[in-house]
Specification:
Blueprint (H helix, E strand, L loop, with lengths): L19 E8 L2 E9 L4 E6 L20 E6 L18 H14 L5 E6 L1 H12 L4 E7 L6 H8 L4 H4 L1 H8 L10 H9 L4 H21 L7 H6 L7 H16 L8 H4 L9 E6 L7 H10 L3 E6 L9 H17 L10
Parallel strand pairs: 3-4, 3-5, 5-6, 6-7, 7-8
Antiparallel strand pairs: 1-2, 2-4
Length: 341
């Protein structure tokens, strides 16, 4: 089947049910939600969701062949089904890296493949650089390394805002003029306003900003009937508010990473193979970050996808991601581990 004009669902594996799930206490009052599906004796693979704060969905299980992979999903601190929802205390990149390692030990995984897009790629890189001996391979999409240049592009009036002024105006429309000079601080204050309606409206505006950048990528249209069939459940107001609070929290703190850290430490992944799948028309995380990572990481292969943007729903993007997970399932199919839960 040609990927021209196709949608992700035509390339992803069929829906699969989780066969185990639970919550793991990770300290600071946090409990992270986890689930497993696929082949209990298969190659362990961890899906690392984006955001920060987005949480996982059942469709995230479908990036892996369930015959070959033992698929693990988890919701990061404060996100999705993790508890307490939206909690910002003890919620940093270092905490999330430690949570992934705690989950690996809890599930008695030796080494696993990590699959992450956007912020999920950022966190996967941070984990792989901290625990390279625990990582078989990486599959990354829409790379974000959290450098000052990337942050300026997304969160100041001097980046994407100049290219897409109408979308930026919608994000900052409710901010006072003085707040527009430091929009992250102003957005954080509104997200925690005593008036619930203000927090909800600000949360919607925050999440809509990235969505509008993806819409402006003008990816191929999804056929109307197919779009209705695949429409995901709309998140609740509480979920939207929690996701926005976490996203702004991380962005205000420069994602709790040193400037250029993920590129400087890429050599720690020299023994880890990886495939970077990057849309040439990505308006959220432009191509330059993926190219810089590829240059710094000897074991990586960069797949540039013409016509694709940031969204994994693009047909050719999905095909390339499935090819990547299929590739690593074949490379490691001789290694099997018992299932602990």
């Amino acid at each position: 089947m040609s990927s021209c004009g196709s949608h992700a669902w035509q390339w992803m594996y069929p829906p699969v049910q989780a066969h185990a799930h639970g919550w793991l206490a990770v300290g600071g009052g946090h409990e992270i939600y986890w689930e497993t599906c696929g082949n209990p004796m298969g190659v362990p693979a961890l899906f690392v969701h984006g955001g920060p704060g987005a949480g996982c969905t059942p469709d995230d299980r479908r990036w892996f062949d369930p015959r070959h992979y033992r698929i693990v999903l988890f919701d990061q601190r404060g996100a999705g089904r993790s508890r307490p929802r939206g909690e910002l205390s003890a919620n940093t990149t270092s905490h999330l890296v430690a949570d992934i390692e705690a989950l690996r030990r809890y599930l008695r995984v030796d080494r696993w493949l990590l699959f992450g897009g956007s912020w999920g790629a950022t966190l996967s890189l941070a984990y792989a650089q901290r625990h390279p001996e625990c990582v078989r391979a990486l599959v990354l999409r829409g790379v974000f390394t959290a450098t000052a240049h990337e942050r300026r592009w997304l969160y100041t009036p001097h980046g994407a805002a100049l290219a897409y002024p109408a979308a930026w105006r919608r994000l900052t429309a409710t901010l006072a003029p003085q707040g527009r000079a430091d929009p992250l601080q102003a957005l954080a204050e509104r997200l925690h306003d005593d008036e619930p309606a203000i927090g909800q409206a600000t949360a919607q505006a925050w999440l809509q900003w990235e969505q509008e950048l993806m819409d402006l990528e003008v990816s191929e249209p999804l056929p109307e009937l197919h779009a209705k069939a695949r429409q995901p459940r709309a998140p609740s107001g509480a979920e939207v508010l929690a996701a926005a609070r976490i996203g702004v929290h991380f962005a205000r703190q420069e994602f709790f990473l040193g400037e250029g850290q993920l590129l400087e430490h890429a050599g720690r992944m020299s023994e880890i193979p990886g495939i970077i799948v990057q849309g040439r028309r990505d308006c959220v995380t432009p191509m330059a970050a993926a190219e810089a990572l590829h240059r710094a990481w000897p074991g990586s292969r960069l797949v540039r996808v013409p016509g694709a943007g940031h969204a994994s729903s693009h047909g050719e993007m999905a095909r390339r991601l499935i090819e990547a997970t299929d590739h690593f399932s074949k490379e490691t199919s001789d290694e099997r581990q018992p299932f602990a839960h």
